[in-house]
Every structure is written in structure tokens, then in C-alpha cells.
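Progress note, sequence design subtask.
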């Protein structure tokens, strides 16, 4: 049967979709159809808006910059385009929108128009903005005392010297806190610090991380085997935090000795952390490195959040490495961090 019209098929079914605005545009960007979700989100009735150009949904400064036209051109070139930003309702109020514009073509590939899908994310943006405002205030207030503590440590060193072991632990811990607070401050300012590319000696890095988790190891819970203090390349602070997170997990879920092993080959360095705790359920192993996943054996009083291992996995990946887990119920978990050796050590 021959089609009765070359016009794209009606999208009247879209009136049943109230969460999204679904708008059909012609090739020039003029509104051809308008669903109930569009009326709810943008405020115009179908009679008011059909035949009007879609650029009226954009702020004056965005129209002057040619944003609507650039979006249509990008959709034509790539098939679709996505954009998130401020849009204008019929009463002039702004809302935060996620927009997808898809180019529509006929059977011969000739562009016939566009379908525009819009979701109102104003409530989510408001919540995000409030959270960011809180974080900026918190980081500002937190950074000052941490910086002061670091200054007091320096004063103590001047009076006591660097021979006191507890003072060395306090210095390392305050350095770690200051680095974390500084990184958080930069991130909430939407100015993430550049990732440093430096040579870090793994044995030193591992012992520093251990001193942050179990300062002084007063109960002898850690057993070290560091055959070769090989070096790796990456952000030392980020890698130290990764090892710290792995050790914290081992210390949290096991009360027995924790083996910390550094093994090196010609090209890689392995950091192995082996505990003798409750283990991870086999069905959880595939997802345990994802954000927020704690596993079915976790308890409310453990104090975990499902963030530590995921953060460690990201830091290791940033350094070109991998992280793997083996676990046996009731016998413990082994985490193996594998990192490439520094280029100057491998001759690359």
C-alpha cells in the first residue's frame, strides 16, 4: 500500500507521555506537534505553539549565540544531539532541561524534520546546587583547621625533631588529610586538580598507607613482605589512598593478621593484601568494585559505605593498572593491585 503522505507519521501516542515533552519540528525548526508533557513542562497549549519556531524556548543570550541552530545542525550531521541547560517557559520562568534532538529522514535518507524530547531536571539541579553550596561551605571550614594542624606539626618538629615515631605518623596523617581536603576543595569549585604524574616507590607508598590505617600497628596485625621496592608512575597521593582503602577494608572485616605483599616482575608490580575475615559472597564478586555495593555479608555496624573499593579501582585504573579479588567464605579475601613499573625502570 502506498503512503498517503510524505509527512512523518503522527506521534499522537505521545500525548500519553506526561513526564517528557515530545515535540516534532520541521526541517527549519518550526513546531509541528506538541504532546501533553510539553504543555506541562513548557506551559504553552498546542494552539499557542504549533507553527512557532522552537528557538523561543531558549534564553535571549543563547539565541544570540546561535545555540538552537547549532543543535539542529549537529543533529543533522550526527543523527542526534543531546544538550543540558536553561530553557524558558511560556511565563518567562527558567527551567533546567535535558534535551535530545533526533533528525528524522524519509525512506530515501532525505531529512524531513526533527523529534525533540525534553525532560525537566530543575528539582535535581536545585538539590545538586544546594549540596554543592553545603560542600563548599564545609570544605572552607574544614580546610582551615587541617592547615592549622599541619602547621602545629611543623612547630613540634622544630622543637622535638624528626626522631619521634608518633610525630612522624602525625605528620604523615596531617599531610594526607591536607591533600584530601585540598583536592575536595578544588573539586567542589568545579576545578579538579590536575592528576600528577610522578614516580612513586611502592614499598614506601604501602607502608605510608598502612601507617594511616593502623598507626604504629600496636597489635601487630600487619605482616609485610616487600621483596623489591619497585617504582610505579602515577599520582602518588591517589595511589596511596587506593592502598589505604584496600587495607581499611581488610582491617574492618578481619581481626586476624593481614598479609601485605609487594611482588615485582620486569614490567609490573603487584600489591597483594590478604585478610582472614568473613570473605565476600561469590555472587557479589562481580559487582563489589562498583560504587555503593557492599555485598550481602556486610552488616549495618561495619561502618562501610561501598565506596572504598570502587574509589581504589578508579585510582588504580588512572595509573594504568588493574585490581582483582579472590575470596572464600569464612576464610578471607585477597585483593591484588597490579601496576605497570615506571618507564625508567623498564627501559621504555
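Output:
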Amino acid at each position: 500500500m502506498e503512503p498517503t503522505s510524505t509527512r512523518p507519521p503522527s506521534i499522537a501516542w505521545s500525548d500519553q507521555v506526561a513526564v517528557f515533552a515530545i515535540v516534532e519540528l520541521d526541517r527549519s525548526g518550526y513546531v509541528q506537534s506538541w504532546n501533553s508533557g510539553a504543555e506541562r513542562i513548557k506551559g504553552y497549549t498546542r494552539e499557542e505553539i504549533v507553527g512557532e519556531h522552537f528557538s523561543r524556548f531558549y534564553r535571549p543570550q543563547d539565541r544570540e549565540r546561535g545555540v538552537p541552530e547549532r543543535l539542529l545542525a549537529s543533529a543533522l550531521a550526527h543523527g542526534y544531539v543531546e544538550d543540558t541547560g536553561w530553557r524558558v517557559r511560556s511565563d518567562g520562568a527558567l527551567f533546567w532541561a535535558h534535551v535530545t534532538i533526533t533528525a528524522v529522514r524519509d525512506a530515501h535518507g532525505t531529512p524531513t524534520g526533527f523529534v525533540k524530547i525534553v525532560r525537566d531536571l530543575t528539582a535535581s539541579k536545585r538539590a545538586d546546587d544546594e549540596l554543592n553550596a553545603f560542600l563548599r561551605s564545609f570544605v572552607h571550614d574544614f580546610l582551615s583547621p587541617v592547615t592549622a594542624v599541619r602547621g602545629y606539626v611543623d612547630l613540634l618538629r622544630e622543637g622535638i625533631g624528626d626522631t619521634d615515631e608518633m610525630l612522624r605518623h602525625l605528620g604523615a596523617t596531617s599531610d594526607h588529610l591536607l591533600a584530601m581536603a585540598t583536592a575536595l576543595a578544588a573539586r567542589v569549585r568545579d576545578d579538579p586538580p590536575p592528576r600528577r604524574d610522578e614516580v612513586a616507590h611502592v614499598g614506601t607508598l604501602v607502608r605510608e598507607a598502612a601507617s594511616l590505617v593502623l598507626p604504629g600497628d600496636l597489635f601487630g596485625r600487619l605482616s609485610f613482605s616487600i621483596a623489591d621496592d619497585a617504582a610505579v608512575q602515577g599520582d602518588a597521593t591517589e595511589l596511596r589512598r587506593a592502598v589505604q582503602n584496600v587495607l581499611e577494608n581488610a582491617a574492618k572485616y578481619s581481626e586476624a593478621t593481614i598479609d601485605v605483599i609487594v611482588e615485582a616482575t620486569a614490567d609490573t608490580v603487584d600489591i597483594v593484601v590478604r585478610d582472614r575475615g568473613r570473605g565476600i559472597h561469590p555472587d557479589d564478586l562481580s559487582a563489589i568494585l562498583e560504587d555503593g555495593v557492599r555485598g550481602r555479608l556486610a552488616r549495618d555496624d561495619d561502618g562501610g559505605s561501598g565506596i572504598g573499593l570502587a574509589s581504589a579501582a578508579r585510582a588504580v585504573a588512572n595509573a594504568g593498572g588493574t585490581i582483582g579479588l579472590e575470596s572464600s567464605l569464612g576464610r578471607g579475601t585477597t585483593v591484588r593491585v597490579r601496576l605497570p613499573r615506571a618507564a625508567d625502570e623498564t627501559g621504555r
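Residues 13-120 form a domain with the Beta-Lactamase fold (CATH 3.30.450.20). Work on this subtask will continue into the next period as scheduled.
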